[in-house]
Amino acid sequence: MEKEKIERINELARKKKSVGLTEAEVAEQAELRAQYLREFRENMEATLRAVRVEQADGTYKPLEKKRPN
Prior knowledge:
With 69 residues, this protein is mostly helical. It has helices at 3-18, 23-50, and strands spanning 52-54, 60-62. The chain has two helices and two strands.
């Protein structure tokens, strides 16, 4: 995410605490936060796909997604 968008998220958060936001700003904030979270999750998943765990026999195995119960 671009630095300007992160700064805008922070600016809106500060404004929300001080004077409040208009309906348009609330919508903008929600959209920016959703985009930030989406990109964060994508980056985290890419990082975890690159992780390899050493097994007892010395081989390396990629992480596996935990299956829901």
